[in-house]
Design a protein that fits this description.
Protein name: YceD family protein
InterPro entries: YceD
Mean pLDDT: 82
Distance between the termini: 123 Å
Largest sheet: 6 strands, antiparallel
Pfam families: YceD
Low-confidence stretches: 1-11
Amino acid sequence: MSENPAQNARPAQLDDKSPWVVDTRELGRHAGLSREVRRSVPLEAALGVPDVISLEAGSTLELDLLLESVVEGVLVSGTASATATGTCSRCLDPLTEEVEVDLTELFAYPGSATEETTDEDEIPRLIDDRIDLEPIVRDAVVLALPLVPLCEEDCAGLCTECGVKWADLEPGHGHEKIDPRWAALVERFDENAGEKPAHGSGEQA
């Protein structure tokens, strides 16, 4: 029987120069050993929803992580934090929001029971004793961004009639509403009021 090349192909190597890649060889697969990782990672591409809220390309993600060697792999835990920018969904003002996410992820050792019994999209793998943090951090940050960003929790938004922020309007601001059934009559009245009365030229009886 011929072998399936996809099953026997070695996984792609990770780029040691990438700030997302962490070498775990010093843990030596000895359960109980750990090391801290603190890094500032620049984003090459924006994360989030453009024109709503996102981490802009060129901004920085701060990683504060603990790597622990366990029986089945390397357990990564800690936080990722950054500053997101966007637009308030109510008043449309620009806003900034501090985003911090908690991370907990197991990277399975090659040949471990975890690797043999799970798919790679369920639990990530170590590749040549290295781990790639980018997928788990990106997913966690995107999920943490608010679906409806607000400049303030009690933002009142805009007046639907004039489009001005309620926060900038005087108390009691409002617009007179005319019943559509009377709109034509009011318009005719305004037209007549603007006309000058004509001077009569006939003789009085």
